[in-house]
Amino acid sequence: MAIGFRHHLQQQLHRLAVNAARPFVSWTEPWEDVDPVSFFMLGPSCGFRERFFWSDRSGGTILVGLGSAYAIETEKADGRFHEVESGRRRWEKEIESYGEAAAPPLLFGGFSFDPHRPRTDIWRGFPAGKLVAPAALLAVRNGRTTLTVTVPTDRGEREWGRIGRLLERMDECAAVPARLPRLVSDKEEEKERWLAAVREAIASIRAGALDKVVLARARRLAFAGTVDAAAVLMRLREQQPFAYLFAFEQDGRCFIGASPEQLVQKEGETCRSVCLAGSVRRGAAMEEDERLGAWLQADRKNGEEHEFVVQMIGRLFSSVCETVEMPPAPQLLKLPHIQHLCTPVVGRGCRERSVLRLVEMMHPTPALGGTPRDRALEVIRSLEPLDRGWYAAPIGWVDSEGDGEWAVAIRSALLAGNEAVLFAGCGIVADSDPNSEYEETNVKMAPMLSALGVMNDG
Ligand SMILES: C=C(O[C@@H]1C=C(C(=O)O)C=C[C@H]1O)C(=O)O
């Protein structure tokens, strides 16, 4: 298929590029089944320096991007969402789109957690906000696969080289060998300092300065060789079947994870979110697991942590939607290593036209920042001993209708060469116990440890 398609596509794009009035053209074609992770794996060998991966919780929408045809980037601390949204609208005027989807291709993106905090070297290349239109986009939606190719009309030849190589190799696209290098060092980042920060946060909460704050910590692993994001993705796909899988890679640095937490989705006038806060580990046997789940649903401290999130998201949805639906009490979301209190929210008759506007209003929810928001952000800045970068921040995609889906980038790690930095945090309220919170961050790191082959529990 690829050889016939390659000639067809090259001809189409060449003809369009010569006649195009705009600086970019894209062409979308139905495509045969191809394994999305294998497609992701082809990127570097074809010369692409960027790779993107997104799979929603059901696996019904999988988007894989290679290369960057167009990027919108901002370092603005204030107004960053507005700036990327304006960039997105400009982008639509710069591209002509043909083939099966005569609409501009979607953009992948991410934001930093707190643009007011100075960036450290580990997050080099991950700005306050960035959206990318990939040069080649494989999209699987409701069992149908399409390939979209986007090229600049004046640099078509160079881009074409990479795309041509990709199409040639897609025919041989094989399963990914999930081999991972051996662990050589494992550094818990300043446990005592983190516990002291939690104690200080509890004291501030008890003194009435704020109600809740989420404090995170990092763990740095070094391996005997380069950690390949494709091998990690492959394992996450097997081990975390109900999570959002995401990867955002540039120049060999990859932010990757399997998050259970939707920030917001917009589909026409319907928007959705999930309040997720309050956690306990899974039990070894069914009886213990059910006992832990029942304890979680009855526990006052976890209920309080959760309620702050429900209040905020409920209020926000009510301000932009005609109707809002949510269950009266939290449900249990059971994941392979952990269970959470979970309240899904649906808003209908949404008046906002772009999902990025909703992302702006929602980030950070009290599940990742705290309550009240500004006070919590100040406490995080002064007490948390790490640069969160894109951890705990919005990651997702937006299309030309302004529709899209965004997750909160937790249960994640930054892969850079031989290193992986893992992140996890938890909500601190007046009744929190620092040692149990520390244990909870270990449970939250388990999915990434397991995907990296460091913890052997599948
Ligand atoms: C901050 C994280 O998770 C968040 C905190 C939770 C909690 O405190 O119970 C639960 C889910 C997430 O909203 C993380 O996984 O790093």
From TrEMBL:
InterPro entries: ADC_synthase (IPR005801), Chorismate_C (IPR015890), IsoChor_synthase (IPR004561). It catalyses: chorismate = isochorismate. Its EC number is 5.4.4.2. Keywords: Isomerase. Residues 191-444 form the Chorismate-utilising enzyme C-terminal domain. It is an enzyme of class 5 (isomerase). It comes from the Bacteria. Coiled coil: none annotated. Pfam families: Chorismate_bind (PF00425). Belongs to the isochorismate synthase family. This is isochorismate synthase.
